[in-house]
What we know:
Structural class: alpha+beta
Keywords: Membrane, Transmembrane, Transmembrane helix
Amino acid sequence: MSELHIGAPPPPPPAPAARPPWMVPLVAGLVAFAVLAVGVIVVLAFTLGRDSGEAAPTAPPVRLDSPQAIAARLAELGMPCANLSPISNPIGAVARSSCYVGTDEVTISVYESKADVEAQWNMHKALILGESKAALVVGDIWTLNPDDHEWGRRAAEKLGAEFRTTP
């Protein structure tokens, strides 16, 4: 049986544990962070996979179909090639010219087709075999043969072309 105290007040309830002063700001910060994180996830979920239906505006492709057009494009991109002069009898090419970046020569060649470009690359590799490392910047129907390979690498990047070297 329990003990009854008649006329005596009931005992006071136990005192709540004291909270450290940093507890309330910490909990508030965690709640705010959780709300922000959920918001970011929701926004990303709705925007990443969604197609707006409109294509991004793009510049029309530039057709580089002559040594002059290629040299002009290089100049527009801040990589001028000076003293452009045609090479007579451009064997295997439709047109061929040379120009200079400083004292280094660059040969610009334009071909009838992509197959002709690949044939030029294969001939280029065979001619250089064992002598030095060959480099060629390869576009759709054109090539650049730079003396300075680092310049060629930068030109390929800026022109959206491929930079090839022999092993």
